[in-house]
Amino acid sequence: MKHLRVYHNSIRSVRQLRFSHLGNISAFCLPAQTASFRRIFESAFSKRTMATAMAKRLEGKTIVVTGASSGIGRSTAKEFARTAPKNLKLILTARRIDSLQELAKEIKEEVGDGVQTLPVKLDVSNPEEVKNFVSSLPVEFQDIDVLVNNAGLVKGVAQAPDIDLADINTMFNTNVTGLINMTQAILPIFKKRSDGGRGDIINIGSIAGREAYPGGSIYCATKAAVKSFTEALRKELISTRIRIIEIDPGQVETEFSIVRYYGDKSKADAVYANCEPLTPEDIAEIIVFAVGRRENVVIADTLIFPNHQASPGHVYKKP
């Protein structure tokens, strides 16, 4: 009889729940002997959204973003902070420390003290700076969980044999050697963890690494190298829980074209005229989404175009 009464009390509680329009479950006074039913109902009816799941997965992580002073890197740092505003550490790196400090200030004003930011002046093309990067961090920031290899650039539109040697070296030292050196600096931290290692490496590639175009031979070559390095790294780490993720944007309006044209804004603006390129925020959302997946889910390779683009050379512009 005792068990029968518990059963009937539980059924009565369910009926109350049905007609409550799913209000606050804690408002129902379920009998003490039906505590187990309370737990079941609370679990079944509690709201779980993708946003809350992502925030939970990111909580407590320490994230490095290279090239964070502008463009995709800057937007990525902000998107991480907005997604997990209660408990996160962000290491913001770039050559322009003033811009990083301003970014740190903006993040604090927007989300509060739950996100700790550490601006670090770093030129990824300088091997010595990269080598000393981790050891120079405060101890509480050294246990890194996520590396976003975003720093990269393009210089000029010259074709062989007229490509400037300085531009060649700058692109390879930043886009390829810098990315590889950063990966090698952070990877030992990941590999010390259980199951052969844990952590995320996100390499920002480009459509240029998949399809070369005239006037971009060196830049395309650097991004093709990033793609090959990324794919090999993923295979080398297959026995671990380390996720290797590549994100390849198409046309994105950042300082990219201004740097390409050596500061000539009129030429840079012409690249985006009469069309709607992607924004840095578009790519940042995808980066954070990829990192915020369940650990067993690897978004290994993603190509993102604006609606008007189908390849580097297939871009529709309004008349």
UniProtKB/TrEMBL annotation:
Coiled-coil zones: none
Residue intervals passing through the bilayer: none
Keywords tagged on the record: NADP, Oxidoreductase
GO biological process, one term: secondary metabolite biosynthetic process
Keyword set includes Acyltransferase: no
GO molecular function annotations of the record: oxidoreductase activity, acting on the CH-OH group of donors, NAD or NADP as acceptor
Family annotation (CDD domains): SDR_c5
Record flagged with keyword Membrane: no
Alphabetical list of Pfam families matching this protein: adh_short
Family to which this protein belongs: Belongs to the short-chain dehydrogenases/reductases (SDR) family.
Protein name: Oxidoreductase, short chain dehydrogenase/reductase family
Species, as recorded: Aspergillus rambellii
Species lineage: Eukaryota, Fungi, Dikarya, Ascomycota, Pezizomycotina
